[in-house]
Amino acid sequence: MDFSTAQPKPAPALCGVVSADGKIAYPPGVKEITDKITTDEMIKRLKMVVKTFMDMDQDSEDEKQQYLPLALHLASEFFLRNPNKDVRLLVACCLADIFRIYAPEAPYTSHDKLKDIFLFITRQLKGLEDTKSPQFNRYFYLLENLAWVKSYNICFELEDCNEIFIQLFRTLFSVINNSHNKKVQMHMLDLMSSIIMEGDGVTQELLDSILINLIPAHKNLNKQSFDLAKVLLKRTVQTIEACIANFFNQVLVLGRSSVSDLSEHVFDLIQELFAIDPHLLLSVMPQLEFKLKSNDGEERLAVVRLLAKLFGSKDSDLATQNRPLWQCFLGRFNDIHVPVRLESVKFASHCLMNHPDLAKDLTEYLKVRSHDPEEAIRHDVIVTIITAAKRDLALVNDQLLGFVRERTLDKRWRVRKEAMMGLAQLYKKYCLHGEAGKEAAEKVSWIKDKLLHIYYQNSIDDKLLVEKIFAQYLVPHNLETEERMKCLYYLYASLDPNAVKALNEMWKCQNMLRSHVRELLDLHKQPTSEANCSAMFGKLMTIAKNLPDPGKAQDFVKKFNQVLGDDEKLRSQLELLISPTCSCKQADVCVREIARKLANPKQPTNPFLEMVKFLLERIAPVHIDSEAISALVKLMNKSIEGTADDEEEGVSPDTAIRSGLELLKVLSFTHPTSFHSAETYESLLQCLRMEDDKVAEAAIQIFRNTGHKIETDLPQIRSTLIPILHQKAKRGTPHQAKQAVHCIHAIFTNKEVQLAQIFEPLSRSLNADVPEQLITPLVSLGHISMLAPDQFASPMKSVVANFIVKDLLMNDRSTGEKNGKLWSPDEEVSPEVLAKVQAIKLLVRWLLGMKNNQSKSANSTLRLLSAMLVSEGDLTEQKKISKSDMSRLRLAAGSAIMKLAQEPCYHEIITPEQFQLCALVINDECYQVRQIFAQKLHKALVKLLLPLEYMAIFALCAKDPVKERRAHARQCLLKNISIRREYIKQNPMATEKLLSLLPEYVVPYMIHLLAHDPDFTRSQDVDQLRDIKECLWFMLEVLMTKNENNSHAFMKKMAENIKLTKDAQSPDESKTNEKLYTVCDVALCVINSKSALCNADSPKDPVLPMKFFTQPEKDFCNDKSYISEETRVLLLTGKPKPAGVLGAVNKPLSATGRKPYVRSTGAETGSNINVNSELNPSTGNRSREQSSEAAETGVSENEENPVRIISVTPVKNIDPVKNKEINSDQAAQGNISSDRGKKRTVTAAGAENIQQKADEKVDESGPPAPSKPRRGRRPKSESQGNATRNDDINKPLSKGRKRAAVNQESPGGLEAGNAKAPKLQDIAKKAAPAERQIDLQRSQVLGSDGDSLWDIESSPGNSSSDLDRLKVCESSQEDTEDSELVKGSFLKVQQAACRGFFDIILLNFIYYNINLILCKNLNHLLAFFG
Question: Which residues contact 658 (CB under 8 A, 6 or more apart)?
Fold first, then answer.
């Protein structure tokens, strides 16, 4: 029986009952227990009492009555306060038994006495702590008795029972330890749980006594008390949950932290309680959602940390059980407080690993955070994803890996490095080691390509990290040779083309750095001199540029160079490391030895040593040596024999063979000595006999690069190789023929005899009637004449004169296919045209071999090439050749002139006219011609092979209609300018050649080139001047990025000096000189508007090229301005100079105003949308870029049939859709004059034709012939619809549009309504003066805030209904009578413009044109404007 329902009631019948003699009755054998006896005797007697009470049960009523006085006596103060602990223990045991025996009614009626007794018993329970104590069993008995009887339940009726319970709980939690068995813990739990579950509630103090054991600090001190509290809470969850909820409500919601000393630990408590049983917090979670939205960032951070642990714990289902809280928590990923976002991102890693099902919810938030402005957050996003992926790749989806992929291009090095290293680790784990099977390897197979693509970045840190990743993760250098080469072999075969190029570039850079170090060591062997020191300094600067942080690296490299000079052993180690015969194992030993010598034990972090290690890692051949090449060749042989594991590696045998040969070819450049073995060359001979042309070509090139000792060391290989090379030179593919000729020239001493044996039969067998068999012979003859000019220059001259020019180039034997395209794939080009292209290349190679013009052959060749450009590729002008073939020949001719210009002796004889013809190829109507020519131009300029004047050609790219081409040209300019400036800095001697190196000196060449632009026919034509300004700014913008050495003033001075000279091309023609001076004024206008520093004094007087400008005449002053002030304003702002109201009133109103610098598509023009793209000093070049954002036209660029301009006739009762198409077509027409370029004006109906009636009549049947012959390009009028790129799916260059195929600068005069108002056109013809009429900038449709219609449409704040009202003029009012046309033309003005402004225009219109407008039209207008 227990006290679970007992209440302390008075027991009159029992109280004070004593024996008959008035004394306390003791058990038999027990004498009286008083304070008169000794302690030992007292203990002895108490033990007998304890034994008696232990043996009693509740049913012995007589004994209960007999020993009641003894029970009362044992509760006296004498026993409760006895100093002896054994006495107290025995008394406590007696009292516990008394409560058991007398249950459910206690023999003690006083509440105070009961309190004292239970506090006394509680204090005795502290003895449970020492399990080794002799009295522990009695303590355990005491606990067991109390728990079984539930004695403490009798305290519920006491007013201050809470004090007893708190003391009991604290005592039990303090004494529990790891030496207790489960029974002790069970009895404690029974005792405490009965108090919690059977009481009226749990007070805050009592709850604190439980919860305090969950706090981490206490938890760490006593793990058993934590476990006890955990089990207690689980057992009493139903009862205690409300108390816990009340506590957290007080602290979290009401903010009453004083209710408990544990208030500051609420989040720790919530975490522990959730781990114990989530049901304990059913009412608390909504409170956390409230705290997540707190205004206090630190408070939100604490809640986020807590919830991160709750959501992320392994067995938690909180996210699914409480979706509102989960969604609220996810919102903290976008918190304004950085630490909150950071904590949210860190949580994602655990969540991904423990709850893969939540990855979908996290993905979008991680995506946003991967673009966070804070570097640390972007970094942690990567760490989060990579950590989860390394645990199990299935935990992360492709989108998450894509975020890491993006961050490899982050602007911060720390983020980029983390992303790259993380991806590298994933690749090694899942692809190289195959830890998760083929499916996982396929999932991350893109990593190798992406990592290698980063080598294209400009940062040296990125390049070095890619090299490190390649050596440690992609192809680990510590693998055995066979395994390492197998890894490299199949890696190379599976890379995409760009990654292959990057890998090749990496090896090339490492090889170049090795050569720099080798040259530095050679300088150490030479005697000390000033020249030697200067050369050594230059070499050190070059090496430092190839190391991280070049500024610091310079000092370390100098120090390393000093150490090399002092330590001969170190020098010999370095020489061995970079020697061609160094093996991978030797390289590893050398690197360790050099690092050991430079290490300083007293300096744990040695920046100098780290920098030297970077250098050694770059130059050490850790992958390739002779043994490695042999292993690669064996792998390739297995692929040829079909015994390799190609298919298992995911590569077809053909791909493996071809890629293996390409790999060997690349390595033959960087490690030629490693190839020198009979076994390797035998395998290459086997490849030469294969049918795959690419394989044979690569094999020949490997022989060419590595076979210098074949003739002396391997005669058997030589005898086998010679006939194969002869056969390839005569009947192989063009590429094979080229390589065969070069191979013979490179590796054989009797090369003259060998080449003669090829030259003579080929030169005799040339037959123009069989062009298919001409291509390879022409290639071989061209390269032979270039490599051995002394032997073959003379015989080649007769071949050139009698066959190449007369029989091949000047004859068209076949008729080209009229396929309507300006470009065709290589396989569709006719053999005759391919032969002609090779013939042009032969001419160039022949001249490059001779390197002199004594026979005037170069002049004749240049005249031939110029004629080909003038005739647009059809040299015979018999109209037999197709458009696509003409494009090929134009490209070949332009490239040939550019190739000859790379040789100084030929550059001198290229006339300005020929240079201009060559330059115009970059504006060719065929997209592919423009693209390939620009690439060749850039490649030659970057290598400093072409004279500076050829960089001016890029200015013409401003006229390219394709945005990508303009962007590419700008990048080329940036690269060229930076290379030239860097070259001047690194080479002190280059200052003597500034005229040919300094980028700013391109300005006079550009001015002269633009002055002779065929499109620049009238020096005062504003549209043509706009084109000139665009071209000038295209170049000047890049040049003026920095004002190095006062370059802005220098360029201004050059333009001013040109005005003091005359055009050397036509010095006596005033019109030519006027155009030159006009371009100078435009350039000065642009420079002055873009730079405030250009008015400073020029650092030096510029030198102008004599080839293009005459010497200034004495006393000649040219201070005339060749462009008016109004034109200047138009050029700089795109607007006319603001006029007063009277000025506006006194000018007749045009249909709509011209909007400059607008590249609009036909669709835009047709829909009446104007894009105002003003260029002013504050916006810089942004206007050009913004104006080019319009999508390219859908019309394919290289279509042969041009778009025809349709004559405008009244259109009535036409279906709106059809009518819209007509407007669109009309809007897409270009200017029918001979103007070229991408921004051309469509003439307003009648407004501009008045000026040009004589020569610009519109013919309904199509565009007229140009007024004068074009030079090197098709007339604009013919090419309007031609400039589309080929729509062949095999061509990657399938974007773009016909050059100037649409009105790039759509004037307002021909917008949506311009084809529908014949009467208005008549009015305009009568009323418009010759000059440009009032510009409706003011007529551009404006929104309430001044936004253009384009801006309104693109703004998210405008409804579609508003846009529909603004655009109503597109489809409505198009088929009405004349009055309705007038009404429709002003509809958008009335609905969207400022009423007051248009009132002025209306008055102007009425005042000056009332005699021209019908009354009903006027009535309509007045009705519209109210």
Answer: 692, 694, 695, 698
Backbone conformation region of residue 872, classed left if phi is above 0, alpha if psi is from -120 to 50, else beta? left
DSSP string of 1142-1193? HHHHTSPPPSS-B-SS----HHHHHTT--------TTTTTHHHHHHTTSPPP
Question: Which residues are CB-contacts of 1073 (< 8 A; sequence separation ≥ 6)?
Answer: 1062, 1063, 1066, 1067
Q: Convert the pLDDT of each residue in 1042-1098 to its tens digit.
A: 777 777 888 888 888 898 899 999 888 989 999 999 999 999 988 888 766 666 665
Instruction: State pLDDT tens for residues 41-80.
Output: 777 778 788 787 777 777 777 776 777 777 777 777 777 7
Please report, for residues 33, 34, 141, 764, 1327, the alpha-carbon distance to residue 40 in angstroms, rounded to integers and kept in the order given: 11, 12, 21, 138, 136
Q: How confident is the model over 780-834, as pLDDT tens digits?
A: 999 999 998 888 888 888 889 888 888 888 888 888 777 778 899 888 888 899 9
**Alpha carbons 912 and 1157: distance in angstroms, whole number:** 30
Contact present, 338 and 377 (Cβ < 8 Å): yes
CA distance 888 to 926: 10
**Strand-pair partners of 1154:** 1307
Judge whether residue 1209 has pLDDT over 60.
no
**Distance in Å from the first CA to the final CA of the chain:** 103
Q: Where are the alpha helices (DSSP H) in 125-160?
A: 136-149
Is the CA virtual torsion 70, 72, 76, 82 positive or negative? positive
Strands (E), 939-1087: none
**What are the angstrom distances between the C-alpha of 499 and each of 351, 367, 839?**
35, 26, 35
Element (H, E) at 858: helix 857-870
Long-range Cβ contact pairs of 754-760 (< 8 A, separation 24 or more): 754/722, 754/725, 754/726, 755/784, 755/787, 755/788, 755/791, 755/792, 756/791, 757/726, 758/726, 758/729, 758/730, 758/784, 759/784, 759/792, 759/795
Measured CA to CA, the distance from residue 1218 to residue 1315 in angstroms comes to: 13
166-to-332, 598, 822, 1226 alpha-carbon distances in Å? 40, 70, 96, 94
Nearest alpha-carbon partner for 862 in 928, 918, 786, 796? 918
What Å distances lie between residue 305 and 256, 290, 302, 647, CA to CA?
22, 15, 5, 50
CA 1216 to chain centre: 45
- Please say whether the beta carbons of 1296 and 1197 come within 8 A: yes
CB of 1151 within 8 A of CB of 1320? Answer: yes
Residue 1267 has a CB neighbour count (10 Å cut-off) of 12
Question: What value does the mean pLDDT take over residues 81-87?
Answer: 80
* Helix axes of 653-670 and 626-641: crossing angle, nearest 10 degrees: 160
Give the HSE-up count for residue 1416: Cα atoms under 13 Å, Cβ half-sphere: 5
User: Residue 566 and residue 554: Cα distance in Å, rounded?
Assistant: 19
Rounded Cα distance between 1389 and 1382, Å, is 12
Which tokens sit at 428? 């090694």
Which of 132, 140, 245, 221 has its CA nearest to residue 173? 221
Kindly report the three-state secondary structure assignment for every residue of 896-924: HHHHHHCCHHHHCCCCHHHHHHHHHHHHC
The burial of 1347, by beta-carbon neighbours within 10 Å (0-12 exposed, 13-18 middle, 19 or more buried), is given as: middle
Of 1057, 1059, 1060, the residue nearest 1100 (C-alpha): 1057
Measured between alpha carbons, how far is residue 347 from residues 304, 326, 1040 in Å? 9, 13, 48
Helix, strand, coil percentages, rounded to 5, for the chain: 65, 0, 35
Cα-flanking dihedrals φ and ψ of residue 1154, to 5°?
-80, 135
- Residue 1296 and residue 1284 in contact, taking contact as beta carbons nearer than 8 Å: yes
- CA proximity to 443, closest of 425, 428, 431, 429: 431
How many other CB atoms are found less than 10 A from the CB of residue 672? 16
CA distances in angstroms from 1416 to 24, 947, 1375, 1419, listed in the order given: 134, 68, 17, 5
